[in-house]
Write a structure and sequence with these properties.
The chain has about 350 residues and is an alpha/beta fold. About 55% of the residues lie in helices and about 10% in strands. A 5-stranded mixed sheet has the order 3-1-2-4-7. The chain is globular, with a radius of gyration of 20 Å.
């Protein structure tokens, strides 16, 4: 593991010195960090990479509750807690382990689209208005935003190339974490987050009891993961339900999202009747239903990976070469710094497309 981490740091340093001056300089918010004073660890906050997971880990370290209860929360609730700005971060770097999590740009952009535009939220409203798109029609009624994946990609990359500010959910990580200026001790990847996290926790010095509690919770965390996602989707629905008045239609989109993420098998049809009969529409009830269907149609680890890969390939199969070229230009440093393949997902050997 140490060899892998050393190789990642070496690649980052080499690419920063060779390519940074030739890259697109995107604009956006300054770096921000989840910080645990108890464990002396700081993780750059980069949405859609898995850094929010680290926000939950930090919360579990700092909380008096047991880790299982801490992980069983709305994922939105970790934001704004245990955070420090870049000025405070620079004052603690000598005594703390500093961490950054990366993610392949193609995958990260697709995740941002699904989470912020396919589902409900302020960003979806903004892009629909900016592009003068109509609402998305589903089951005879409006449900979300009539914005395609290609619409989204062109909107983001065009803004970046014009020097306009980007939202943190799709800012290049090199900018979001100031990766060429800040020296990070550990470069984790979303693609190997579980293995990386186990190693990082071993490096940290805090209560063995608390550490064991967190490690145990992480190993049996699927129920907490689904609950966390569902709770956040319910929060968003409550806030933006005028964009999709029919909650059954909204959770049909949530069901599709969980399939794209590799949690729910594509063999499991959306149980619309079960949602229609619900008298208590809360996170625990919905999580129980989803877990029941996951048990009926179990997925092995390899099958989950294939399902995610298939969804990504299919999404990019409809994206034209001009749009791909803009992604490669805007996110060039993320590809190079973190060692990601610039070939589009649908053009790689073994890609699954319709």
């Amino acid at each position: 593991m140490e060899q892998i981490l050393t190789s990642r740091r070496t690649t980052l340093q080499e690419m920063c010195s060779k390519e940074f001056n030739n890259s697109v300089k995107t604009k956006g918010r300054a770096p921000s960090f989840f910080y645990s004073k108890s464990a002396k660890v700081a993780c750059c906050k980069a949405p859609k990479t898995g850094s929010s997971f680290w926000g939950t880990v930090v919360l579990a370290i700092e909380s008096r509750k047991n880790a299982s209860d801490t992980f069983h929360i709305n994922r939105n609730s970790v934001h704004g807690r245990n955070e420090i700005d870049v000025k405070k971060f620079r004052n603690i770097t000598r005594e703390s382990l500093t961490l950054m999590v990366s993610r392949e740009p193609y995958s990260r952009l697709f995740s941002a689209f699904v989470d912020k535009y396919f589902l409900l939220g302020q960003l979806g409203r903004e892009i629909q208005k900016a592009l003068k798109k109509q609402p998305f029609i589903m089951n005879g009624g409006i449900c979300g935003y009539g914005v395609t994946f290609t619409d989204f990609l062109n909107y983001i990359t065009d803004r970046a190339l014009r020097g306009m500010e980007l939202n943190e959910h799709f800012m290049p990580i090199v900018k979001l974490c100031d990766a060429c200026a800040i020296k990070y001790d550990v470069l984790s990847k979303q693609e190997s987050l579980t293995k990386d996290t186990e190693h990082i926790l071993d490096l940290l010095k805090f209560s063995d009891e608390k550490k064991n509690d967190i490690q145990t919770s992480l190993k049996k965390g699927i129920k907490n993961t689904i609950y966390s996602l569902v709770a956040s989707y319910l929060t968003d629905y409550s806030k933006y339900r005028t964009d999709c008045p029919d909650r059954v239609s909204h959770f049909e989109k949530v069901w599709k999202t969980l399939q794209v993420q590799g949690y729910v098998s594509t063999r499991a049809a959306y149980p619309a009747g079960e949602f229609q009969k619900m008298t208590t529409f809360d996170a625990d009830t919905i999580t129980s239903l989803i877990l029941r269907e996951m048990e009926r149609f179990p997925l092995r680890k390899e099958e989950k990976a294939v399902q995610r890969k298939s969804a990504l390939s299919i999404a990019y199969a409809d994206v034209g070469p001009e749009t791909i070229a803009k992604i490669q230009k805007v996110y060039k440093m993320d590809f190079l710094l973190f060692g990601y393949n610039m070939t589009p997902p649908d053009k790689r050997p073994g890609a699954i497309t319709l």
